[in-house]
Design a protein that fits this description.
With about 475 residues, the protein is an alpha+beta fold. It is built from ten helices and 25 strands. The strands form six sheets. Strands 5, 6, 7, 8, 9, 10, 24 and 25 form an eight-stranded mixed sheet that branches. Helix 1 packs parallel to helix 3 and helix 6 (about 240-255) runs parallel beside helix 7 (about 270-280). The longest helix has 16 residues, at about 35-50. It is globular and about 60 Å long. The two termini are about 25 Å apart.
């Protein structure tokens, strides 16, 4: 599995069942803690662990061992590390450390409103572009619609080779990476190398307002007479359900008869968004069918122990009889549920890319004001099963066409997949999209796409500089 490549700070929200249990208030026994804030938040953490955590039986057994003198933002992981039955809560990274899906975080200053920034999301890969001089590059993964980056012509797959007139080096890469990711500077002056044609572009970006929509790209590809709807969806965010349905409706109105759903950058999200997505694609005969069943600990008295999520209003937009999905080791939770949920209804799903992360459990996410701090808390509270009662995809789902394996049926291989190589929709350079179209049409993959893959295979991992954050990959010679 490639789980350890995952960023530890990007712990996916997986399968959020949007419930808000009515807690009676915060129990604040005399438990130590460094401050009143620590004591109160730790009490809140304990409250849900003891009542709702999927492995609450072991919590009860070992709760006396928890270090309640810890800072609140360290307490949860320290407590969970003392348990042994909760192996499905997270994974072990390449350093042998446990990384938990369960989390609690301060969201006091966060808002879901539009973002003031540049509109660039970086792939968590650093490339060595000039090993003699020690120069590195950042690879663009996302360019948000209607952002300053889109207006300036930045595209997915572009390699940022200079920032503010300076080369990216071992001494400044962390600062520059985070300044772009976090929109923490007023202006960006970038030099870009475009992988598809090896051209260089110099741009200057000022901040602007844009929406971090998960619907990054939606278009119809007319491939030799076959109209294929292509949808890039990066998060199952219930706040964008209407935009998701609008995008699917537009694909239908533009004449699409097939759908490629690109979930290679999708870490998961809300179950109800997965239900809406699937309902918009499948035929009417599946209306009322169970896409997913979630089961909680039998001693959980706060939330209903078992819940079913059924498809509704099917056949009103598309009425597909099969679906093609692009995935990667970053695809998790609700992204995996779409595949396994539909397969549980004997609905054919062709999976192309690399083995998915493997997250078959989920959270009931709550937010609470504690003094002047607003915390978002998401302990693992349930396990997921499809209509056939199958839920054993904790090690990931193996794709039908694995682009990281040389012997796959299409004969195309990219050892660095899902490294971004080209813009969304560019099937002449994006091998995953080219492979998906080939599976749908039964026609071969273009020479240009194959050539792009061969070039990608020349990259080799580097260890010459420290990773600026957990899970980042570093490559030599882009």
């Amino acid at each position: 599995m490639n789980k350890f490549w995952r960023l530890s700070y990007v712990i996916a929200l997986l399968l959020i069942a949007c419930t808000t249990p009515g807690y009676p208030g915060i129990d604040t026994p005399n438990i130590g803690g460094n401050t009143d804030k620590d004591r109160n938040i730790i009490a809140y953490i304990d409250q849900r662990l003891e009542k709702e955590y999927y492995w609450l039986d072991e919590v009860e057994e070992k709760r006396a061992q928890f270090n309640r003198n810890a800072k609140w933002d360290n307490y949860l992981s320290e407590a969970l590390n003392r348990l042994s039955t909760n192996t499905d809560d997270g994974y072990v990274n390449n350093k042998g450390q446990r990384v938990f899906y369960s989390y609690i975080r301060d969201i006091t200053s966060q808002t879901r409103a539009d973002v003031n920034g540049f509109g660039i999301g970086l792939h968590y890969t650093i490339a060595s572009i000039d090993s003699d001089n020690g120069y590195y590059g950042f690879i663009v993964e996302k360019v948000y619609p209607n952002s300053q980056a889109e207006a300036a012509g930045v595209i997915r797959g572009d390699v940022i080779t200079m920032v503010g007139g300076s080369h990216i080096t071992s001494s400044n890469y962390y600062q520059l990476f985070t300044s772009i990711e976090n929109n923490s500077v007023a202006q960006l002056k970038l030099q870009l190398k475009r992988q598809t044609d090896n051209t260089t572009h110099n741009i200057t970006l000022s901040k602007g307002i844009y929406s971090k929509t998960p619907v990054l790209h939606s278009a119809v590809i007319d491939f030799e007479g076959t109209k294929i709807g292509y949808l890039v969806y990066t998060s199952f965010d219930a706040e964008y359900n209407d935009q998701l349905i609008d995008a699917i409706t537009s694909l239908k109105e533009e004449g699409a008869t097939e759908i490629i759903l690109d979930l290679r950058c999708n870490n998961g999200g809300a179950v109800n968004s997965a239900v809406k997505l699937c309902s918009a694609l499948v035929p009417e005969r599946l209306s009322g069918s169970v896409l997913c069943r979630v089961e909680r600990n039998k001693r959980n008295t706060v939330v209903e122990q078992s819940s079913e999520f059924r498809l509704t209003e099917t056949g009103q937009i598309f009425s597909l009889e099969h679906l093609t999905v692009i995935c990667s080791n970053y695809s998790a939770s609700a992204a995996e549920l779409v595949v396994m949920g539909l397969r549980g209804l004997d609905f054919p799903v062709t999976l192309i890319g690399s083995q998915t992360e493997g997250k078959n459990c989920g959270m009931d996410v709550t937010r609470k004001s504690i003094g002047s701090t607003i915390v978002e808390y998401a302990p693992i509270t349930f396990m997921c099963f499809n209509a056939k009662g199958f839920g054993d995809w904790g090690e990931g789902i193996v794709p039908d066409v694995d682009l990281t394996q040389e012997d796959n049926e299409l004969g195309v291989y990219d050892k660095n997949y899902p490294l971004p190589r080209a813009d969304w929709g560019d099937y002449n350079h994006d091998i995953a999209l080219a492979a998906a179209i080939a599976k749908i049409t039964g026609k071969g993959i273009s020479q240009s796409a194959t050539r792009a893959t061969a070039e990608s295979n020349t990259l080799t991992p580097a260890t010459s500089i420290a990773k600026p954050m957990e899970g980042i990959r570093i490559y030599h010679e882009l």
